Amino acid sequence: MELLALSIFGIDKPGIVFRITDLLARANVNIVDIEQNVLQGIFTMFIVGDATRAELSIDELKAELDRISREIGVHYHLSPFERIRIGGKNRYIVTVIGKDRVGIVRDVSEILFSYGANIERTSLTARDQLISISIVVDMGEADVQEVKNKLKEEIEKTGLDVVIQPYSVAKEEKKLIVFDMDSTLIDMEIIDELAKVAGVEGEVKKLTEKAMSGEIDFETALRERVKLLAGLPVEVMEKIYENIRLTEGAKELIESLKKAGYKVALVSGGFTYFTDKLKNELGLDYAFGNELEIENGKLTGKIKGKIINAEEKARIIEEIARKEGIKKENIVAIGDGANDRIMIEKAGLGIAFNAKQALKEVADGLISKENLIGLASILKLPAEFRKRV
């Protein structure tokens, strides 16, 4: 097979694609690959053509391209093309999200280059001050985990967020998204709010921090914290819910996810009193939490039934997936603490949201609450939905 590479660029106008492809068709050059874009009003097109049965020589094609390019006001380059071997690649998609600034692509490409990774394609979308840069990378022989850790570490220092996914997984259509509640779907820790009213805020916060950082197991910490809430009237929970703070953009994001066909679940180590109310308010498909024991209108300081810890969270998600007929690759899990570690690791895409270090290490990517809009870009929600968040 005799291949030719043809590149075209110039000011965009109607008819460029037709005039060029018409010439190739008349010359009996078969297009085997093509990519065309308009960027800031500039037209670009790259074509690989099979000239094995071409009825014009390269010189004759160039003469025709000279004439046509003058008529339509574009520039071109035509040359023989040697096909490179496509197989054996180790592709990932690196997505960087945040406020636009000078040097983002340079900083990311410098890290990738230092590990011998090859950038194959880069695209950018912008919305107001927020940008999303998607980079297709062949990691080659690089230690992927080491590259991922370096990208997360260095990009976070710049105030940006990053998500790194295997190419095959990134191309899978996502169908189920699972949120943690405290400090993820809502911008607060419910148990801390309860503790304030009970006058045990200091003791509860210490236990919360130890549990979220992985210093003590979640179940022990939860039982000890709930024990401190014994005697608290149920009415307190209603007042807290009335003043609940959703993470900025969360409501709009969930509405968009639902309209895009996602199943949306809330799986929390928090309390059913709040997860159930959020399920109704936000129209979630599923909501799970721990049930506080109540007697005579007051908290007893105990939890009813099985504790939703890290293992139970993962089991619940697997159960939802089986029920809905959804594969692991189609699941997105978003959480902020050590209790979310297993579900983050097992999901097709695991996002550490405004997270503690223990979770950042195992997540596919990091997103801060300031950049929630970036999640819509990563999940490839239609543009009319992304505008809402």
Automatic annotation (TrEMBL):
EC number: 3.1.3.3
Enzyme class: hydrolase
Source organism of this protein record: Geoglobus acetivorans
Protein's pathway: Amino-acid biosynthesis; L-serine biosynthesis; L-serine from 3-phospho-D-glycerate: step 3/3
The protein's required cofactors: Mg(2+)
UniProt domain ACT: residue ranges: 5-79, 93-165
Phylogenetic classification of the source organism: Archaea, Methanobacteriati, Methanobacteriota, Archaeoglobi, Archaeoglobales
Keywords on record: Amino-acid biosynthesis, Hydrolase, Magnesium, Metal-binding, Serine biosynthesis
SUPFAM superfamilies found in the cross-reference section: ACT-like, HAD-like
PROSITE patterns: ACT
Protein name listed in UniProt: phosphoserine phosphatase
A Pfam family this chain is assigned to: ACT
GO MF entries: hydrolase activity
Family listed: Belongs to the HAD-like hydrolase superfamily. SerB family.
